[in-house]
Amino acid sequence: MTGLPSAPVEKVIVTYKPSAAEAGSNSAAKSDAADKGARTGEKLSFERRLAGGAALVDLGGAADKQDVADVMAAFKADPQVASVEPDIRAYPMAVTPNDTDYAKQWDLFEPTGGMNVPTAWDKTTGSGVTVAVIDTGYAAHSDLATNIVSGYDFISTASDARDGNGRDADSKDEGDWNATDGECGTGSTASNSSWHGTHVAGTIAAVTNNTKGIAGIAYNAKIQPVRVLGKCGGSSSDIADAITWASGGSVPGVPANPTPAKVINMSLGGASSTCPSVYQTAINGAVSRGTTVVVAAGNSNANASGFTPANCSGVITVASTNRAGARSYYSNYGSIVDVAAPGGETRNATDTPGTVTTPENAIYSTLNSGLTTQSTETYKPYQGTSMAAPHIAGLAALLKSAKSTLTPADIESAIKSNARPLPGTCTGGCGTGIADAAKTVDAVTGATPPAGTVFTNTNNVTISDNTTVSSSIAVTGLTGNAPAALKVAVDIKHTYRGDLVIDLIAPDGTVRNLKQSSSSDGADNVLTTYTVDASSEVANGTWKLQVRDVYSGDTGYIDSWGLTF
User: Which H/E stretch holds residue 526?
Assistant: First the structure.
């Protein structure tokens, strides 16, 4: 919000000294208001007594500044008056930004499919946080320029980079077009440049309230373009080094990053049944340095477990939803998805592929008009989990800005636990629901009082057939025993939850059963909160969630769990 409306003053608030008759008598206050009105030539009237004891005095309609000044001067001159002040107007601070295309950004504000972003801006706008967009690089755009910090080009092959050399400090997007079918492998098709990284960057941190274009989710955050995708995509070796560098790690032959990112967005991926070790090592390093890593689930309408880096540990994997709040027809799904966010649809699932029938239902963001090389800046709607992921990266930046002590695990837990159920359908699994920006920010800033002290563990623990595994939480800083209504929040991804026996183990080894196995319960996943009487247990110590898989044929993992005391 750039300024407040200039509203006329219609009432004043008068506080009388305790000894004054007007302090306790409404009739006395009424007489005094009439007397002051006669003196100033205004039609004053006592309206009501406020909770604090002050008198609300109506000026008889909107008064100009001089009239208000005269009335206040008359009250101030009265020795029985302790204070007088105008009854000023207050306004909701989460107002509509003045960006000209904001109305097209349904994904931010619509109650059905949107992410409830504007209300979060009352408390945080992303200041002090850098978000690395590991993507195609940056196409110059005036709706982003002031929020861009220097990045790096990690494409090591000059022909793919199209800039005449390998790695360098220029993260300019040189275009990712393909001139002919088959140029990038069997089944590849000729295509124009996507300017993909610039579109992603706009969703995260487009400049806002600048009377042009769009609003960014974390519009006071900084974007660091890190180029890894060029002609025919990018290599895992380059992408892994980019993750390390962006998060402040050391990469041989590359200068240190002067502005390490606390959030990384990777709207990219490839087919792989497992997470490559080069990815996992880089991600582990980034998380250890305090960087939250957000990745797209993929656009193949398939289980995300077959795509990477979506299937890596330590990342927030994001599925896409449409304007109706259902899973986008193209979005990957499955037990490894952590949360969903608006990714839009430029066509309906039943429309002919390649057609663009509902562009207003896609995600509108910054782009370039060039077919191959950069031309003029523009805006355009895109669809994809690539568009959903930056919504979560933007939210992560809002959270980190609001509370700098949050760890990546804290941020993931907050986003997942404060998501809302999809109003539409999601066959296959879309995590904990659609992320809710305002609710999540409120939760981490304490705007909504927590039920109690919360401890969480978001490290994944694999559950293989016929095995017993556990995940630990070290509880410290509490006094006395645990409550009689200890809350145990469980998020287990598993393709046949009837296989599982779940126990809570107290620090002294006492076992409390949370769930028994059942051969007739063939549903996926355990996503629930159990209530346990743990009042006989000392609160401080190491608590464990123990999971036994008692049948063969289905596996999964502990995604996260938590205790609320």
Answer: strand 526-532
Q: How far is Cα 223 from Cα 204, in angstroms, rounded to an integer?
A: 8
Return the half-sphere exposure (C-beta side, CA atoms, 13 A cut-off) of residue 319.
37
Tokens representing 525 are: 């996943």
Judged on CB neighbours under 10 Å (0-12, 13-18, 19+), 256 is: exposed
Enter the tokens of residue 246.
């962006």
Helix axes 385-402, 196-205, angle to 10 degrees: 40
Which residues contact residue 493 at a Cβ distance below 8 angstroms, ignoring those fewer than 6 apart? 335, 336, 524, 525, 556, 557, 559
Q: Are the C-beta atoms of 532 and 556 separated by less than 8 Å?
A: no
Amino acid at 414: A
Closest CA to 199 of 247, 267, 110: 267
135, 238, 499, 559: which one is catalytic? 135
Only one residue has tokens 């009388």, namely: 16
Lookup result for tokens 């008889």: 60
Cβ of 8: how many Cβ atoms within 10 Å? Answer: 14
Residue tagged active-site, from 386, 413, 471, 560: 386
Side chain identity, residue 353 = P
Catalytic annotation, pick one of 99, 173, 176, 196: 196
Pair of tokens at residue 546: 């123990």
Residue 389 near residue 298 (C-beta atoms within 8 A)? no
What is the CB neighbour count within 10 angstroms for residue 355? Answer: 10
How many angstroms separate the CA atoms of 381 and 359, rounded? Answer: 6
Structure tokens, 133:
């967009």
Quickly tell me which residue has 């993992």 as its tokens: 557
- pTM of the model as a whole: 0.69
Q: What is the dihedral of CA 157, 159, 163, 168, to 10 degrees?
A: 0
Along the chain (565 residues), what's the average pLDDT of each consecutive run of 10 residues?
57 94 94 93 91 90 82 94 86 69 95 94 95 97 98 95 93 94 88 96 97 97 97 94 97 96 96 94 97 96 96 97 95 96 90 85 97 97 96 98 95 94 91 95 73 81 94 86 89 92 95 92 87 89 95 90 90
In a 10 Å sphere around its CB, with 0-12 CB exposed, 13-18 middle and 19+ buried, how is residue 358 labelled?
Answer: middle
Which residue in this structure is represented by tokens 């790695």? 167
Q: Is 196 a catalytic residue?
A: yes
Does residue 135 carry a catalytic annotation? yes
Residue 320 near residue 402 (C-beta atoms within 8 A): no
d(CA 443, CA 437): 10
What is the C-alpha separation between 415 and 317, in angstroms, rounded?
12
3-state SS of 312-331?
CCCCEEEEEECCCCCECCCC
Dist. CA 147–CA 218, nearest whole Å: 10
